[in-house]
Specification:
three-stranded antiparallel β-sheet; elongated; alpha+beta; about 160 residues; single chain; 3 helices
């Protein structure tokens, strides 16, 4: 096997993707509608229009982000466009328990060192040493990916 062989793939579940984007888009349209049909005071109207536009933009960004897939290789977790999310050598832990701070239907990763912040709504986010993977993904696929990632992490740094 080569280093770039894909061990696991995680993609957005189509029904969850559509429901998530529709929910965000509907909220944005509702905010714009209320701001224009039943206008509150001018300041609040501007806030509602800005929030409505922001939520619609987030829905569009989520649609583009969830079209991507995540790939786990021996080197690390990456997006199908080549963006490295986390290297296996930099993993401190993989958390997928009920009480873990993680996205819905996903898992959380703690890194040994800080990484630049990044966010692909509905798929993954990274802040400091924490990475959340999941959201509109299928939980079974995320569980398999997390287990393989834990196995890869343990192979690189055996316990004392």
């Amino acid at each position: 096997m080569q280093d770039n062989d894909v061990l696991a793939v995680l993609r957005a579940s189509t029904p969850r993707r559509v429901i998530g984007v529709l929910a965000l888009g509907s909220l944005g349209v509702l905010l714009l509608y209320l701001a224009l049909v039943q206008p509150p005071a001018m300041g609040w109207q501007l806030v509602m229009v800005a929030l409505g536009a922001l939520v619609i933009w987030l829905a569009e960004r989520m649609w583009r982000a969830t079209a991507r897939t995540l790939e786990l290789t021996r080197e690390g977790l990456r997006s199908d466009d080549g963006v490295m999310i986390a290297r296996i050598a930099d993993l401190a832990s993989v958390e997928r328990g009920v009480f873990a701070f993680k996205p819905s239907n996903g898992f959380s990763i703690r890194l040994k060192s800080k990484a630049p912040a990044a966010w692909q709504p509905g798929l993954w986010w990274r802040v400091g040493r924490r990475i959340g993977v999941g959201g509109v993904t299928a939980s079974a696929n995320a569980k398999v990916m997390a287990e393989i990632m834990e196995d890869q992490m343990n192979r690189q740094s055996p316990p004392d």
